[in-house]
TrEMBL record:
Gene3D superfamilies assigned to the protein according to its UniProt record, in alphabetical order: putative rabgap domain of human tbc1 domain family member 14 like domains, Ypt/Rab-GAP domain of gyp1p, domain 1, Ypt/Rab-GAP domain of gyp1p, domain 3
InterPro entries assigned: Rab-GAP-TBC_dom, Rab-GAP_TBC_sf, Rab_GAP_TBC_domain
GO cellular component: plasma membrane
Residue span, Rab-GAP TBC domain: 41-229
Domain of life of the organism encoding this protein: Eukaryota
Stated name of the protein: SFRICE_011662
Assigned keywords, A-Z: GTPase activation
UniProt GO molecular function: GTPase activator activity; small GTPase binding
One Pfam family hit: RabGAP-TBC
């Protein structure tokens, strides 16, 4: 793993503090500089505040200063409350914050998820939100984690948690089409063995890679994800696919659907490392126009499909 010197970290911290103190000006006039600094990695000391600002959680918090506490006073849907309680112990069970049943971490996780379910009854509670909320709580107080979750659920992963998972299926098709450009041999292998994106990419997207990547890699990917949006998840997914199934000898051994899925569920540790992942994500030969083109193409294709609601 590449190490960063203390003096470099200190310089980056100072740059980030200056940016955060002039946030609106930087985002409106110098977004490319913000993006560049996110890609280098946000210093740990400023990461919680940076994430809150990057995703728009700070704006929501300022706009609705008392709403989180008000949402917690509501009774909440009994079915949602029951489902949330069932999932609390499953989120990062070995992390000190969540290891104790009914400890402070689990209580705060329940509160954040309950508040969202009351705020957005159309979605209520979706299981994949739990690891996202837990990951946020490891970095910031509950009220900040809540507004970040609202922004991520409603803006970054918009439509992912709606019934039918149609948006997720469309994005799986986009991923598949982009893979044909970036790793054609891997794409051919998946087509040959009928390995649909919904079979391997669902958890990657719904949980924003919180259940997939090791800690350091997840932090780096989220630094970029909260700055650049969902396309970062696509890039990470493309690198994982190419890294796991790129070698011809691996594809030869993965001679069927089940064998291929096993490789993707347990990719080699090396390709999930932060240096490998960030290096290859930034070198993918994909433009904004490529993403937009595939988004429009797959959206139009799905609209033209018969019985779309049943797909």
């Amino acid at each position: 793993k590449r190490t960063v010197s203390p003096s470099t970290i200190l310089k980056r911290e100072q740059k980030w503090l200056r940016m955060l103190n002039n946030w609106e000006a930087f985002m409106s006039k110098n977004y490319k500089k913000v993006r560049e600094r996110c890609r280098k990695g946000i210093p740990a000391s400023v990461r919680p505040k940076a994430w809150l600002y990057l995703c728009g959680g700070q704006l929501l918090l300022e706009k609705h200063p008392n709403e989180y506490e008000e949402l917690l006073q509501a009774p909440g849907d009994p079915k949602c409350m029951e489902d949330i309680r069932k999932d609390l112990h499953r989120q990062f069970p070995y992390h000190e914050m969540f290891i104790r049943e009914e400890g402070l971490g689990q209580q705060e996780l329940f509160s954040v998820l309950k508040a969202y379910s009351v705020l957005n009854p159309k979605v209520g509670y979706f299981q994949a939100q739990a690891p996202v909320a837990a990951f946020l709580l490891m970095h910031m107080p509950a009220v900040q984690a809540f507004w970040c979750l609202v922004s991520i659920s409603d803006k970054y992963l918009s439509g992912y948690y709606n019934p039918g998972l149609e948006v997720l299926q469309r994005d799986g098709d986009i991923l598949h089409a982009l893979l044909r450009r970036t790793a054609p041999a891997v794409h051919r292998h998946l087509v040959k063995h009928k390995v649909e994106p919904v079979l391997y990419a669902t958890e990657w997207f719904l949980c924003a890679l919180t259940r997939t990547l090791p800690w350091d890699s997840l932090l780096r990917v989220w630094d970029c994800f909260l700055c650049e949006g969902v396309k970062v998840l696509f890039k990470a997914a493309l690198v994982i696919l190419a890294g796991a199934l790129g070698p011809a000898k691996v594809r030869k051994r993965a001679c069927g659907l089940c064998e291929t899925l096993e490789v993707l569920r347990h990719p080699p540790e090396g390709i999930l490392g932060e240096d490998y992942l960030m290096y290859h994500m930034q070198r993918l030969n994909l433009t904004e126009e490529d993403f937009e083109f595939e988004h429009q193409r797959q959206t139009a294709r799905r609209r033209a499909m018969p019985n779309r609601s049943g797909s």
